[in-house]
Amino acid sequence: MAKYADVIIDISRGQLDKSFQYRIPAELEDRIRIGSRVRVSFGSDRRKIRGYVIGISEKAKLEEAKIRPIDGTVRDAIDIESQLISLAVWMKDHYGSTLNQALKTVLPIKVKAAAREKKNLRLLLPPEEARGELACMRARKRHSVAKERLLEALIQDQSLPWELVTGELNIPSASIRDLEKRGWLAVESFRSMRNPLAALQKSEKRIWLNEQQEQAFQAFAADWDLGRRGTYLLYGVTGSGKTQVYMEMIAKVLSQGKEAIVLIPEISLTYQTVMRFYSRFGDQVSILNSRMSAGERSDQFERAKEEKVRIMVGPRSALFTPFPNLGLIVIDEEHENSYKSETVPKYHARETAVERARLSSASVVLGSATPSLEAFSRAKRGEYSLLSLPSRVENRALPDCQVVDLREELREGNRSVISRRLGQLIEDRLKKKEQIMLFINRRGMAGFVSCRSCGSVIKCPHCEVALTLHKNGRMSCHYCGYSMPAPRTCPRCGSRFIGGMRAGTEKFEEVIRRTFPGARVLRMDADTTRSKGGYQRILGAFANQEADILIGTQMIVKGHDFPNVTLVAALAADLSLNSSDFRGAERTFQLLCQAAGRAGRGDRPGKMVIQTYQPGHFAIVDAARQDYESFYDQEMAYRSLMSYPPAAHMLVVQIMSDSEQAAESAAALFAELLRRARPGGRIDGPVKARIAKLADVYRQAIYIRDEDYDLLIADKNRIEDRLLADRSLRAVNVWFDFDPMNAF
Ligand code: ADP
Ligand code: ZN
Ligand code: ZN
To answer: How far apart are CA 432 and CA 430, in angstroms?
Structure first.
């Protein structure tokens, strides 16, 4: 049976959607796989070129006779592009996207050099001679001021950037050409490989690992020496020195001629973090971040490919750095939401890193003080090796944490958002000139209904998630569509203090300013950080102690050290706890633990306050005690009971159309298709998405749960096949989201 290969020819220019079919000769059949580098003849002139195989099929797309054979494979064909192409194919199958979308995500696209082309003017005359010429020019009657100025500047610096000469110095290009013709100067162009860290200094100061860090490192090193590669979970409380351990592991891998990728959430990718890596590894480090231009990013990938840098630090997308000899991928703060892509393919960096490491024979280290349930359950099953750092460096104490019951405040007649206890503590810190951070656990919109007298929340009887309140006074479940009218009194205690709880940082700021008129207050939220650099500016001002109180969304507690902060408070922990999706408790626990890690980073002990209407909720109780394992056991029991990830897998099928009717009928059609194919499967919906209409697009969702990931992939394939076959579905767009991190 003849087999055919789809070959892409020019990946460097991003021509990924054009593949060409070639025949696989029988003698090459064993050697050609997805990702293989092959030699083919191309175009009418049949020039010999190289390409990559991105697909293999048994069906010819053209007349058999018109399909040319593959000439051969390229030796040492397992180059970095081959690995990344295999990774793209895995992502396409695993997360649901087109091959083209997956290839565009993983392959480094060279950005045109033109934008980066730089020109320099260089003086060719010896400076003495040039001075002589300058004097002659000046002595002439009709002398040219521009040429003289240029010559003078070149005598001083010998080499000048083109932009400076034509810009600031304002020299016409005719004058430049004239001096060039005389052979006095040369215009040289070179491609500058921008180095974003060029200005930093390497430091010699070295920190030695303490005993528990050493143990964690040695476990990794022993495996490495035996040639064992795998995935490790470095579970260490905040301040236990995880970064120091990563750096030893990186040094080990580098010493064997390998390279390392370090993923850090964008929000904590600060100057300080980068500096820690730079001061240890110097010029071997480079960074990626979202503020870089496409050209700068492309440069970084090029430098990595040529092994001019050997450690890449960056957010999720740095995972695709084309290191040819990758040895290690570190994912810091592994539990962070930002590791899941929000665009198709909706990949998670954790699983994708594990697959990339498998293809490159590398290891993966995941680090967190509050591991995701996914990671910890895999560590418990032995799929990942668990390395623990149970105490803080130099045995620094964790902050003292106090839970304040807001129901009691209400009973005592205090209806302010600031409890009496928190009020006292704020007064005290203001007097001592210490700083305070107040944050609101807000994620998107909180639309739940709860009772301020007893704390209970109205939940879906089938899905155990908070119901979402709508403008029409009804509440509905975002997974199964169950709905009911919002009650006027609490079904549990009869109180009339029941209703939606909505709180913005702005409103809190107002209350704080009114209650503490002497305090200097800064607010940080989506509004105040919208401008470029707004985020860094606010944090910088707070670090310089230009304010006493920083109030904001949870973004203020992520990854920043303020030694003068001795009080941190969550103003309303319930806002993230009562989520309309199943991850609410986990997110709340992580956030509160992380916030506690912010208090008392200096030498003074820190204090944390959690205000809540549900002081008995395990996520609150365990966060206050910093007891991860107790939290894990209880949360995992809930996930198992309800078949939520990671106890099972979940696939969200998102159906979108600018016609409401088209979205609804397509969603109904898919749901029926799936139910018929797998009777008894756990399929919920279709329901209107939580944001039912966004930018004039109507959105529907179907939720499928199963322990077997492959069954979900089969469901995805059914829908994809139907979409291809059915012309009436042209008006809808479908996205797949496996094991979603965010409520859709
Ligand atoms: P984590 O990432 O676990 O929260 P960090 O790596 O940020 O912890 O370390 C916390 C602080 O402890 C840092 O200032 C770091 O320089 C310091 N540190 C780490 N390891 C050691 C060590 N072995 N001896 C002394 N200080 C250390
Ligand atoms: Zn009640
Ligand atoms: Zn439900």
So the answer is: 5
